[in-house]
């Protein structure tokens, strides 16, 4: 398998998101410099044995402002938000450079403590045939180009309110010496606490 950045292999089925429920989008923002300053590149990286982030280094999680309550214990990787049973929660991930320099691919979200605030998370993909991208032929990027873009997320329906410890795993890619190719640095995981009010 190549160590060049690749998309995850999501289940082919696309989850049907009810229009009656709210979709709470959670963005996991990864500061790759904070991680690479602490953890050396792993030449033996395996996705089934990710390196744990001991202190949630470089991780910030954000959600929709109307759902946001706060961060637990002032840790930006522990999120408290409002949601109702039956609402959808979608985890997305990117680096602070928007994946343009270093990049991350989220590849697993699962419960660690069996509380089951969430149903099982599934990798899903949605292709927008008319997604807009900055126009490379224009100095300000406008008007945009329009082309198909596939977006990946990990989605679940809220099963109950409460606190749950999740395990989130992601692959981190950094630029090679040419500055052209994103190559695997290591696989990581962290264990945020999520409080659904």
Question: Which helices and strands appear, and what pairs or packs with what?
Answer:
Layout: E1 23-30, H1 32-36, E2 51-52, E3 59-63, E4 68-71, E5 79-81, E6 88-95, E7 103-111, E8 122-133, E9 145-157, E10 162-175, E11 182-190, E12 193-196
The profile of the biggest β sheet is: 7 strands, mixed
- Can you tell me the overall shape? globular
| Proportion of residues in β-strands | over 45%
CATH topology label: Immunoglobulin-like
- Count of domains: 1
User: Radius of gyration, Cα only, in angstroms?
Assistant: 17 Å
Q: What's the CATH architecture?
A: Sandwich
Estimate the helix proportion, in percent: under 10%
Give the total of beta strands: 12
In terms of per-residue confidence, which ranges show pLDDT below 50 for 5 or more consecutive residues?
A: 11-19
CATH class membership = Mainly Beta
What is the terminal separation in angstroms?
42 Å
**H/E series, N to C?**
EHEEEEEEEEEEE
Count of discrete alpha- or pi-helical segments spanning 4 or more residues: 1
